[in-house]
Amino acid sequence: MVAEGAVPKEGQLVLKDGTADEFGHVRLSGIGEWVAREITDRTGQDARTTVLGHVQRGGTPSPYDRWLATRFGLHAVDAVEDGAFGTMVALRGTDIVRVPLAESTAGTKTVDPSLYDEFEVFFG
Question: Are 65 and 57 contacting, i.e. CB atoms less than 8 angstroms apart?
Fold first, then answer.
């Protein structure tokens, strides 16, 4: 996990491009891809980036979206402080828990088929 605007310890701000927002501020992006390349280079394991906000929501973030993202961040930092490497944070009900990566990748996760009936009401 890495925050937009994070800077490598011996480096400078990593930007995908130098575009600015409507207020003239540089748009922060690119550090995640840099970290993924570093992980791949150092471990030989494939690493990819995911922007949580893109996965978490499909539109304008709600207060719950923002609160959940903040909670995930807090719990991820706690995991690092505790040395709980090889785990990920996950939402179970309303609780955020640590899950071993081996468990999270052990099998295919499926969606309960009855949920498709509910989705059909909204999406046809």
Answer: yes
Q: Which string of DSSP letters, residue by residue, matches 11-63?
A: S----S---B-TTSPBPP--HHHHHHHHHHHHHSS------HHHHH-SSSPPH
Q: For 46-70, what is each residue's pLDDT tens digit? A: 998 887 766 666 667 788 888 998 9
Phi and psi, residue 65, nearest 5° = -55, -45
Reading the block at residue 30, the tokens are 């690119």
SS3 102: helix
For residues 112 and 97, what is the distance between their CA atoms, to the nearest angstrom? 22
For residue 3 the two structure tokens come to 């925050």
Return all residues near 100 (Cβ < 8 A) that are at least 6 apart: 86, 87
Question: pTM value?
Answer: 0.52
Write out the H or E segment, with its range, that includes residue 101. Answer: helix 101-104
Phi-psi region of 79 (alpha: psi -120 to 50; beta: other; left: phi over 0): alpha
CB atoms within 10 A of CB 26: 13
Amino acid identity at 37 = R
